[in-house]
Amino acid sequence: AAGIAALMCAWLAVLHLRMVISPAPQEMREGAILWITRLLLEGRNPYALSELPASTNAYGIAYHLVVLPFARLFGNGYTVHRAISAAAIGGSCALMYRLLRREGTDRVLAAVGVMLFYASSLYFVAPLARPDGLGVLFSMASITWLFVDDLTPRRFLIGLAFAILALLTKVYLAFPPLVMALYVFLFVSPRRGLIYGLGTIGASIAALLIMTILCPAYISVSLIDNINSSTYYNVDHLKRQALDWLSYSLPLTVGL
Predict the structure, then answer these.
(1) Percent share of the chain, pLDDT over 90
(2) pTM
(3) What is residue 1's three-state secondary structure?
(4) Distance (Å, rounded) from C-alpha 115 to C-alpha 136?
(5) Cα dihedral angle (244, 249, 255, 256), rounded to 10 degrees?
(6) What is the rounded distance in angstroms from the CA atom of residue 79 to the CA atom of residue 68?
(7) Cβ contacts of residue 162 below 8 Å, gap of 6+?
């Protein structure tokens, strides 16, 4: 069974490679992501008021900053952006394996779990020219440091640093420190949990304020617009998305 799973995973990797090198856009917003990177290559600020509304970007800047040096070397194309997403997915798979092994999971079962995670990661937009894959990597790195029995202040600060990177990539992936702060508050030490929680909030506010100084429209575009969009979300559309996820991510669904 493990061998069959490995063969299926290898086939998925081939399909993933074809996706990375395809010259065509594979999602309606991929071109917009390349446009933001192009502005940075030209020395322009995508979040400057003079660039709006053409440069409106509901995501953070971190993905583009990671892509930027590679775009300078190899060109600002889909393949470069998708390659960064592919590397991020690979890193997330490695962290998933480490987490499973740390919890005492057998090597073979941990490898199968990683294969299921990889299969689910290829669904929808994570492998494309978008920040999703990189945001998940930062979030999982934060989880790796934070979700331990003996959480020291040093581990919390490292996990918080990765969460801030996730915040600057895709806002809602910055949750791990808040979850762990709540756990510590409820089950370990209310005082320490409160310090962790307030520290997380303070660090997040500081990061966003610094970004606002450097990029005037950053909070309005990447945070407030996302919050406001929740007022017109459609429940039926949410149900359709959930069913799509369950069907396209069937390997992970079955595994769970």
Answers:
(1) 52
(2) 0.88
(3) coil
(4) 16
(5) -50
(6) 13
(7) 138, 139, 141, 142, 145, 176
